[in-house]
Amino acid sequence: MKRILTLLAAVSLLCLALSGCGPSEDTVSHASSLSQEQKAYYTFTDDLDNTVVLKEAPKRVVSLMGSYAETWMLSGGTLAGVTEDVVSERGMAVPEGTKIIGTVKNPNMEEILSLSPDFIILSTDIEAHVKLADTLNNAGIPHAYFQVEYFEDYLNMLKVCTDITGRDDLYEQNGVQVKQQIDQVREQVRLAGEKAPTVLPIRALSTAAKALPRDNMVCKMLEDLGTDNIAARHASLLEDLSMEEIIEEDPDFIFVITMGDSQKAVDALKNGIEANPAWNSLTAVKNGRYLVLPKDLFHYKPNAKWGESYAYLARILYPDAVS
């Protein structure tokens, strides 16, 4: 009897030991989570802090903005659907069979879903895009929001896209080499040691004209190139181009970026602020430094041409220092 009781006690202790070493509910849950992550093709956090999980390499990608469509193509990706600005504004050549799925601000969800997309690229800055989140989540369609204003933002997006496509060579070509070009231009400006020129960057439409806000990409480029933006000292210029304040500052350069119909925007300037008798007395105007900048480099996101944008401005600002 004693032997039987001893044997039973040993068996009970063994069971308790095995039970203590077994996987807990938390351990099982964690293992399951790890298993799912291991199965994912690529996981990243987008610019709205959403975790984006791609279970496999996407083959039917839709972009709801022209500049993002270009970034995806610069990464070696193909597109099943794009917005009409890809053709009408950026003049990009897209493969036959790529479908136009509406405009940037009014994408056609029915057309998008008809393409059976496995990845959709959207903008954080477009209200219509943000509103699509619930629909896309409910449909189980992987999607990501990006925000690109400065070169660094483009570089971050390009890195994500080339990670997805597996084209590290294109990140080097369209990202790293562009950064090197920008760094070289900025170094030439630094070494020149010239006095910071004063600038006034203007956004012109057919109906109005006002100074660009400091967080605009053109203002960031001008800041990186060592200029002094007078609009940073006169916030009222962001609402209305006061001739009185412009005369007071008398900037060395006035740059114009047009939106919409460029000719109508230029005509509006001629009939507006340029009609002021004091306009021709400005230093920038007298010295031929009142310039309309090309849209492809300064209105649209230049992407792989960002280095050209910096160089274009630098050659105007510092003609003796930048080659």
Task: Give an account of the 3D structure.
Mean pLDDT is 89; it is low at 1-37. The chain folds into 2 domains: 40-166, Nitrogenase molybdenum iron protein domain (Rossmann fold, 3-Layer(aba) Sandwich); 192-317, Nitrogenase molybdenum iron protein domain (Rossmann fold, 3-Layer(aba) Sandwich). With 323 residues, the protein is of the alpha/beta class. 46% of the residues lie in helices and 14% in strands. Strands 8, 9, 10, 11 and 12 form a 5-stranded mixed beta sheet that branches. Strands 3-6-7 form a 3-stranded parallel beta sheet, with helices on both faces. A two-stranded antiparallel sheet has the order 1-2. The longest helix has 25 residues, at 168-192. The protein is built from 15 helices and 12 strands. The N and C termini lie far apart (101 Å).
How are the secondary structure elements laid out?
Layout: H1 2-21, H2 25-39, E1 42-45, E2 51-54, E3 61-63, H3 66-74, E4 81-82, H4 85-88, E5 99-100, H5 109-114, E6 119-123, H6 127-130, H7 133-139, E7 143-146, H8 151-165, H9 168-192, E8 198-204, E9 209-211, H10 217-224, E10 228-229, H11 243-249, E11 253-258, H12 262-271, H13 283-286, E12 290-292, H14 295-298, H15 306-317
Parallel strand pairs: 3-6, 4-5, 6-7, 8-10, 8-11, 11-12
Antiparallel strand pairs: 1-2, 8-9
